[in-house]
Amino acid sequence: MKLTFLGTGTSHGIPIIGCSCAVCKSTDPKNKRRRCSLYVVTEGRHLVFDTPPDFRDQVLSFGVERVDAVFLTHPHADHIFGFDDVRRFSALQDQHIPVFGSEETIRQMRIKFDYVDQGYNFESVPRVQFTEQTGPVRIGEAIVTPLPVAHGNDTIYGYLVEGDGKRIGYIPDCNAIPDETHALLANMDVMILDGLRPQPHPTHFTIEESVEQLARIGARKSYLTHLTHNSEHHDLQARLGNAVTIPWDGLETVL
Prior knowledge:
Metallo-beta-lactamase, Chain A, 28% strand, globular
């Protein structure tokens, strides 16, 4: 199984427009954070988790050449507004690509991308199959299970991916994990969790809260994601030590 962090930043991206803080002005590529997305290759299948506004740049920068399925955590702009670029993959592969999400996410996708079902040719629109996901789905031999979590007042999805004898969890937006979801996160090889910033936020874990949750989950490898410009990469990594890794855009992990 191979994971590629396509984006690790919050909804603004880093640098933030109009900001002159040290992180936004940094020339270190580890402080340049596109909006959140993850690419997983397992059991010979190529899976994308969220299609943010930076999606085209992400797939070109980090060598994504195939997409067998797309999984959407929720329909906020920073997680779906690069969706139109899925059309290039459906055209190259000459096939419809399955797109999974909660009932509300798929409902919103049909509204925001209403032209997808209008009968255009493969070059003009994403040729996809929108599917409401309520439980595990199998993509080849890989199994992807939705992980319901709280994002403010909304219940949205993270995902558990099982393949090649490995288990990874991906929850980029979250401020509470119900016990039923925690029960699915036993014996994890990798856990990737929202850790927005040091200060409290109504819809995201703080870094401290995320680290506490990651300790409870006890994965063999733990990562934070959805980071703001409040955290300089190296300073935050030094503060957290070896317990949690701060990823950067383009980081690949092979399990």
